[in-house]
């Protein structure tokens, strides 16, 4: 206004008239606030102008115009200030809604209030002290509120209130019209943005694409801080998290999976088409959602929720989050409603592409796993293959395979990963890894009865009192949920694959288990073949030894009444399974009798395994009898079956049973009673069907009385005793035996010795034979080697007269004879014990037995050679 105003009383009217003319020509916000500020400042002193728009439908107000010269435009809080809605019940605004004319307020009266509006606090902190408040009315309805701010100036400047009252109607129309124009412009602009946004959504294939489209496109249409997209799955207890604009931490993700807060929100919106707006303060919860909590100086306050239209039973939920209240309005709800279909399609595309990618990845994983399985040969290979594939799957945290034992009634842990081992060790429960569990525990038999993977909520089973040992096992390791899959091949149950899995992929685990079953079946078959191979190798050793020793039941020679009595006992016991105890002096042929009983029994087509209890070191007896597992002790580099297992369905001959240590006698008694045992280092019970024949040259009854032999074991072995007569008690058999041995050893002589002179035969009959048949055999062998004629005319008997020894023989003399004989043979062999041409071969003894006798008799090779 260029001309001066002379009449002071008309000054407010003239200023108001000028403003009305100017207001009519303004149709947008920036022009309106600039015109109003510039014109008023030519007549009045003030800091700035602030106009708020009132929305009576929502009961809120929000900033409409801020003076371009205002300090607030330079504040960091300006963006939040200009996008904040507040309640019409706020101080000052509430008074303006009731006022008919302009009024003055002092901000200090409100700045100290607990719930002071944000814009009052900001203005007061930056120096504003008073304000002239003018309600903008159209037909008695307040459409806005205009504020003129002052710091130290006088708000009661003459005529200012009158000017503002005079233009309040025009200014109200200007605000209203500007909003209508902006709404029309915004609608056209939003339509363009919606089209571009829909086009971007149509091209979405990945989460990154979707996040970019929402962040770049939707934020141009609606004011919000963060967003979440959640899949609502009907058959799941909680929604599945898709993704968010936030970089959420593990605890926050966990809340989205487990807290019912989100689920309750969507339950309220499930039956409504329009999006709903919620204030977080409306919800009473002692477990506030971390993802909506404080972030720096900001805190989530308001949510806009919409269930997006879905198909195939799945629905997706959209959550927009604002850090201020009263930000979302009806227009935002309408806009979300318009784009919800496009957004749902985009989300479905993302899920579909991820599912296809996951399936392709699963195929690759399964293909690689099948290649690994093809090279599996043992349990360790299988464990490594499963650990490798589980490392590629989030659905497998830890695993254990419980295998079914041969008895089909119990289970033991067959394979476990390092994480399980570590957890068990931390709990001090390593014994569980070797424990035998019953198959009928209420859960295992249910799993094995079906063909599907089963999911167990562990605490629910424990609370219901139905938890088995496997449930407590996993709960003790801290697991919440476990998956059990039966391992089967060809209808045969092999075991159960247990997995610690918080979010199980049942289909993938089932596919893996199909291959694990094949591998496990192959391992068991290989172990069985290896066991048979080892058995055949050991049997072959025994057979070769038997061939070398030329032991055969037909070599039992004798027609004396004493031997006839033995034959009768043999025939009586042969076809039974009774334990036989053969007693007699050394050299009486106890092993021949044992083999004769075996060959006459129903077990003759199976092997007879011989164990010399005196020839084995104390620390090896147990492993020889019962076998051992790989790693059972230092040097156990592979599994080996024992003599009991080797003699299954055959006969086990325990020679020199009287030499067995007491500690081993206890374990032998248990096997004889229960017909089962475990290998050293093993945890699987092995059942055996073995016929026991024992032999000894000791008087076991005296050994029992002396405490050197267990009475219970003695009575278990002495079911059917056979006492072999010494050779001196059946002298009539000496001619038959002598000619038999003569025929055997004369074959390798330079010329064949065909007979024995009468005098020599009388000498043989007169001798007491403390070494019995074995001494006779060796004597004939020696005499044949020293003979120079075809008729044996001299035998090299000990110097003592035969007649002097016709009575019972002294054991000391017996040992001296045996010692002298062994020394003579060793001398001939230059001290060589085993191998071809060794003393063991000449004496027809196993080298281990000869070594044992040499140790017992104090014979050393060095002394013999010397």
UniProtKB/TrEMBL annotation:
PROSITE patterns hit by this protein: SIGMA54_INTERACT_1, SIGMA54_INTERACT_3, SIGMA54_INTERACT_4
Keyword terms, alphabetized: ATP-binding, Coiled coil, DNA-binding, Nucleotide-binding, Transcription, Transcription regulation
One example of a Gene Ontology biological process annotation: regulation of DNA-templated transcription
Residues of the Sigma-54 factor interaction domain: 556-785
Coiled coil location: 526-553
Pfam families found in the cross-reference section: AAA_lid_14, Sigma54_activat
Keyword presence, Mitochondrion: no
CDD domains associated with the record: AAA
UniProt-recorded Gene Ontology molecular function terms: ATP binding; DNA binding
Name of the molecule in the record: Transcriptional regulator containing GAF, AAA-type ATPase, and DNA-binding Fis domains
Organism: Mucilaginibacter gossypiicola
């Amino acid at each position: 206004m260029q001309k001066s105003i002379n009449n002071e009383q008309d000054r407010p009217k003239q200023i108001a008239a000028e403003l009305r003319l100017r207001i009519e020509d303004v149709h947008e916000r920036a022009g309106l606030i600039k015109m109003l500020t510039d014109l008023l400042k030519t007549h009045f002193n003030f800091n700035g102008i602030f106009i708020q728009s009132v929305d009576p439908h929502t009961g809120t107000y929000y900033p409409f115009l801020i003076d371009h010269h205002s300090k607030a435009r330079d504040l960091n809080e300006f963006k939040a200030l200009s996008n904040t809605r507040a309640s019409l019940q706020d101080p000052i605004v509430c008074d303006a809604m009731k006022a008919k004319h302009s009024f003055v307020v002092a901000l200090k009266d409100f700045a100290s209030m607990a719930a002071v509006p944000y814009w009052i606090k900001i203005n007061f902190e930056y120096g504003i002290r008073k304000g002239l408040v003018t309600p903008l009315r159209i037909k008695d309805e307040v459409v806005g509120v205009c504020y003129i701010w002052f710091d130290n100036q006088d708000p009661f400047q003459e005529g200012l209130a009158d000017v503002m009252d005079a233009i309040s109607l025009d200014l109200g129309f200007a605000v209203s019209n500007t909003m209508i124009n902006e709404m029309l412009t915004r609608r056209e602009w939003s339509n363009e943005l919606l089209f571009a946004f829909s086009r971007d959504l149509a091209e979405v294939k990945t989460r990154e694409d979707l996040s970019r489209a929402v962040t770049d496109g939707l934020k141009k249409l609606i004011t919000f801080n963060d967003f979440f997209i959640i899949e609502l799955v009907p058959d799941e207890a909680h929604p599945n998290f898709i993704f968010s604009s936030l970089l959420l931490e593990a605890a926050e993700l966990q809340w989205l999976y487990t807290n019912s807060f989100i689920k309750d929100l969507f339950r309220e919106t499930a039956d409504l088409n329009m999006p709903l707006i919620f204030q977080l303060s409306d919800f009473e919860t002692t477990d506030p959602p971390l993802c909506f909590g404080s972030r720096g100086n900001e805190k989530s306050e308001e949510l806009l929720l919409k269930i997006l239209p879905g198909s195939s039973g799945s629905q997706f939920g959209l959550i927009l989050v604002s850090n201020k209240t009263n930000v979302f309005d009806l227009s935002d709800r309408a806009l979300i409603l318009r784009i919800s279909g496009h957004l749902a399609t985009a989300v479905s595309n993302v899920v579909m592409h991820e599912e296809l990618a996951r399936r392709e990845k699963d195929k690759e994983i399964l293909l690689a796993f099948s290649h690994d399985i093809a090279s599996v040969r043992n349990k360790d290979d299988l464990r490594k293959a499963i650990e490798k594939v589980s490392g590629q799957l989030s659905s497998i945290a830890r695993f254990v395979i419980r295998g079914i034992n041969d008895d089909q009634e119990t289970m033991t842990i067959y394979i476990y990963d390092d994480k399980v081992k570590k957890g068990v060790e931390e709990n001090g429960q390593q014994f569980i890894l070797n424990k035998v569990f019953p198959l009928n525990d209420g859960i295992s038999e249910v799993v094995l009865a079906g063909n599907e993977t089963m999911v167990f909520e562990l605490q629910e089973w424990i609370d219901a009192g139905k938890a088995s040992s496997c449930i407590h096992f996993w709960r003790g390791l801290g697991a919440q949920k476990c998956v059990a899959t039966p391992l089967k091949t060809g209808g045969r149950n092999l075991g159960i694959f247990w997995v610690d899995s918080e979010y199980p992929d049942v289909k993938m685990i089932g596919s893996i288990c199909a291959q694990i079953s094949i591998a496990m079946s192959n391992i068991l078959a290989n172990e069985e073949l290896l066991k048979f191979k080892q058995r055949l190798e050991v049997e072959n050793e025994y057979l070769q030894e038997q061939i070398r020793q030329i032991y055969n039941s037909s070599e039992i020679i004798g027609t004396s009444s004493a031997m006839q009595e033995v034959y009768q006992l043999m025939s009586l016991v042969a076809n039974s399974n009774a334990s036989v105890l053969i007693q007699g002096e050394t050299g009486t042929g106890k092993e021949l009798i044992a083999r004769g009983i075996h060959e006459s029994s129903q077990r003759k087509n199976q092997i007879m395994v011989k164990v010399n209890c005196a020839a084995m070191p104390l620390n090896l007896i147990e492993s020889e009898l019962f076998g051992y597992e790989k790693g059972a002790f230092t040097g156990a580099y592979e599994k080996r079956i024992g003599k009991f297992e080797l003699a299954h369905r055959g006969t086990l001959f325990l020679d020199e049973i009287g030499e067995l240590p007491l500690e081993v006698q206890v374990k032998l008694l248990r096997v004889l009673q229960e017909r089962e045992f475990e290998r050293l280092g093993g945890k699987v019970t092995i059942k055996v069907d073995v016929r026991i024949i024992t032999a000894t040259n000791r008087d076991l009854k005296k050994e029992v009385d002396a405490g050197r032999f267990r009475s219970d074991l003695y009575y278990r072995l002495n079911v059917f005793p056979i006492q072999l007569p010494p050779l001196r008690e059946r002298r009539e058999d000496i001619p038959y035996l002598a000619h038999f041995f003569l025929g055997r050893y004369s074959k390798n002589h330079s010329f064949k010795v065909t007979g024995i002179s009468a005098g020599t035969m009388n000498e043989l009959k007169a001798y007491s034979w403390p070494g019995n048949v074995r001494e006779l055999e060796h004597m004939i062998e020696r005499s044949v080697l020293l003979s120079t004629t075809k008729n044996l005319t001299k035998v090299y008997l000990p110097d003592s007269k035969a007649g002097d020894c016709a009575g019972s023989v002294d054991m000391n003399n017996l040992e001296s004879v045996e010692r002298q004989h062994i020394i003579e043979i060793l001398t001939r062999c230059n001290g060589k014990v085993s191998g071809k041409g060794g003393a063991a071969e000449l004496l027809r003894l196993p080298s281990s037995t000869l070594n044992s006798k040499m140790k017992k008799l104090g014979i050393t090779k060095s002394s013999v050679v010397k």
